[in-house]
Amino acid sequence: MPESRTRKSADEKQKVKKQQVAKAKKVKAPSSRRWVPPTFITVGLLGVAWLIVYYVAGDAVPLMSDLGNWNILIGMGGMAAAFGLATLWR
């Protein structure tokens, strides 16, 4: 049974696609990410420490008393940044 034109063109398209995929250069991820665990632990602990200092001695620290409730955003932002860094860990 003869093949239809659409079937031939579909086969050709698949061959071209396979060739393009084979030719495409793959970007290799960095093999070593040893810097990630110490970095995300440090950033997370800084965020927690910022919140603890704000709640315990916020009025006594001049910069923290000027920032007011923005201190909560800074502490939570540090913890969120640590979580974002943790997703880079392999």
TrEMBL record:
Provide one Gene Ontology biological process annotation: cell division
**Protein name (database record):** Cell division protein CrgA
**InterPro entries, per the entry:** CrgA
Q: Which UniProt keywords apply?
A: Cell cycle, Cell division, Cell membrane, Membrane, Transmembrane, Transmembrane helix
TM ranges: 35-57, 69-89
Q: What does this protein do?
A: Involved in cell division.
Q: What family does the Swiss-Prot or TrEMBL record give for this protein?
A: Belongs to the CrgA family.
HAMAP family named in the record: CrgA
The species this protein was found in: Microlunatus spumicola
